[in-house]
Each structure stands twice: as C-alpha cells, then as structure tokens.
Amino acid sequence: MPVYFYWGDDDYQINQAVKSLIDNHVDPMWRDFNYAKINAAGDLEVMDGLNQAATAPFGTGDRLTWLADTAIAQKCSEALLAELERTFKHLPTNSYILFTATNKPDGRAKSTKLIQKYAQVLEFSLIPPWKIDAIAQLVKQSAAVMNLKITADGIDLLVDAIGNDSRRLNMELQKLQLFHGQKAAAISAKEIATLVQASAHNSLQLASAIRSANTSQALSLTAELLRNNEVGLRICATLVGQVRTWLWIRLMQEAGVRDDKEIADAAEIGNPKRVYFLKQEVQGLSSQKLMRSLSILLQLEGDLKHGKDETATLQTAMIELCQAMTR
C-alpha cells in the first residue's frame, strides 16, 4: 500500500517507523531527489506534497514524501479532499506518501474515511504512565527483539526507572546489550541498577506530591524530571490526565454514584478495580479544588506552548497547584 498515516504522541517510535520506510524504499544514492519532508500544517503545503508524491522517482529506488504534522484527519476542505482522492488513485507504483499527526483521526471526517480506504493507518501513542502492566509488556517485547533475557525483578526496575519513555528504553536496552554480550544468564535487577539510573520519580509521583500539597517535594520532582530530559508539555499532559481522572471520581462520588463500573465508564478507566484505589487518593479533595487545579494546568499548557521559560513556568505552576489543594 503506497499511502501511510501514522499518528500518536510517541515521537521516537514514529521517527523509528519513518526511518524504516526510508531505508526500505529510498536508494541512498538518490535520496536528495526522491525523499522530501514537508511541514504540512496548511492546505497549500499538503497540495505541494501531493504534487511531489505524484511525480515518478529519479534513478533507482522509490520516492517517499513525508507530510508531517498534518491536520487533514481533523479538518479538510472539499477542494483538498478531492485532490487527496485523485492523488491516492493515481500514485505511481514506486512513489509512497506518508502523513504523520499527533491527534487521533476524527472518525466522522470524510478525509478520515478516505485515509482508511487507501492508507495503512498505525497508532504510535505513549502508554499512560499509570499502566504499569502495559509498560512492563513493552519492556519485555523490546528486550526480546534485542535477544536480551531479563529477570522479573529486572523488568520491574526498568519500568520504575524509565516509565513510558520509549526512546530511553531503547537506549538503556542497547547499553545492557553491550554490557551483557552473549551471556546465557538473564540480567538481574542488581546488574541493571549499576548501569541504569533507577530514578522512580515520574510525573505520577509529582501528581501525588501536588495532591498532598507538598510544595518542596513537587518542586524537587519537577527539577529531577527536567534533569532527566522530560519534556514540560509531557509532564503537563500527565498531570492533566491524572487530575481529570480524580475530578471525575470526585464528581461521581458527590453525585451519589457508588457502582465502581459506572464510575470507571464515566472516567474512561479501563480497569474498574482501579477505582477503589482512586477513591482513596481523592479523599479530602473537593471537586472545586480539582477544578481549580485543572484550570492552572490548562494555563500551564498554554504558557508552555507559547514558548515561556520551561523551568520557571513549571515551578510557578507547581506552587500554585499545591496552594490550590489547601484552599
């Protein structure tokens, strides 16, 4: 299939998939002629990319046109929709086109239906940091691909140290591969601890510190996350997700709902058994406190997206969030 649509917020996995497409289709000797990456935020840029993709490649190998950060699966004019369909139907057999986007395609949009008809659609989303079992499974799968045997306690240590950071997981597994060589024995947690910075501090622990109004711990965790190259917007996104979940739990409780499955459905929690623990977490918190916190986080997201200093902006928000939990 000559059309690909990759979406999700795991930039590392998307970039790895793109690299695989380039390696498989583009002759390195003809790359300057047959590979193009276009920031396709607007209709004109998408049109330009479609025109390039419709051109047969030069020399040997195939052509690959990458339209990055596109919004065609969210909104698409009728003119662009017609151009997409015309291009998809008449792409040269040795020309490939790739669209990438952060947001999930809108299933109601005509363009999404067109993409689903002609393209191979793949999701590359980060595993939510609270889905420990899913992260552990990713660690196991990634280790197996690299022919690494890791003990159960070693897997647990990597999950705690790395969280849902797929880029760092790949880097740490490569490090372990070099260290372990061709040894038959599985790598233990003790061995891993000597090579991997086993910092269990993550954005969920930061959310816990905020919930407890522990300002000094929240600031310390924020500083450590930034030192470990965690992106401010990703920290913010995790906090937004956690606070929103707490808010749903609290609102359902205040409405008199007692059934955990009903609460799980409303809060979009996959495992209803998790609701019991979430109820313990929101004890002592009112929906008003959580709504104030969510407002602060949405302001933080806007400030970060507008390019404000990441460290100072996050520090200010952490103080405000802890204060909101005490009012």
Automatic annotation (TrEMBL):
Per its record, how is this protein called by name?
DNA polymerase III subunit delta
What is the organism of origin for this protein?
Pseudanabaena cinerea FACHB-1277
- Organism lineage: Bacteria, Bacillati, Cyanobacteriota, Cyanophyceae, Pseudanabaenales
- Encoding gene per record: holA
Give the UniProt record's GO annotations in the biological process aspect.
Answer: DNA-templated DNA replication
Residue span(s) of domain DNA polymerase III delta subunit-like C-terminal: 202-318
EC number(s): the record gives 2.7.7.7
Give GO terms: molecular function aspect only.
Answer: DNA binding; DNA-directed DNA polymerase activity
> What are the alphabetically sorted keywords of the record?
DNA replication, DNA-directed DNA polymerase, Nucleotidyltransferase, Transferase
Highest taxon of source:
Bacteria
Does the entry feature the keyword Cytoplasm, yes or no?
A: no
Q: Which Gene3D superfamilies match?
A: 1.10.8.60, 1.20.272.10, P-loop containing nucleotide triphosphate hydrolases (3.40.50.300)
Q: Which residues form the DNA polymerase III delta N-terminal domain?
A: 4-124
The reaction(s) annotated as catalysed by this protein in its Swiss-Prot or TrEMBL entry are: DNA(n) + a 2'-deoxyribonucleoside 5'-triphosphate = DNA(n+1) + diphosphate
Keyword Endoplasmic reticulum on entry = no
Q: What Pfam family does this protein match (any one)? A: DNA_pol3_delta_C
Q: Which of the seven top EC classes does this enzyme belong to?
A: transferase
Q: Which family does it belong to?
A: Belongs to the DNA polymerase HolA subunit family.
